[in-house]
Amino acid sequence: MDQPTLTTNTLSVTKSNPAPADVPAANILPEYKVFHGIGACIAGIESDTLCTVVPVLNDNEYVDFCNLDLRIVIDLTHTPKRTDVNHWSKVRIDDRGIDKAGNELPNGMNMSPQIGITTIGSGSADDPKRGVFYGGVYLEHSYFERIRATKLRGWPENPGDFKLHELTSIAYSGDEDNGPRAKRRYHGFTAQVVEINHDQVTFDVDEHARPTKTRVTFTIGDASKYDPAPPSEALGGALSLASNLVAGQPGALFLELKEANQYPYLSIKLPIGEGQ
Question: Is 86 within 8 Å of 164 (Cβ atoms)?
Answer without folding.
Answer: no
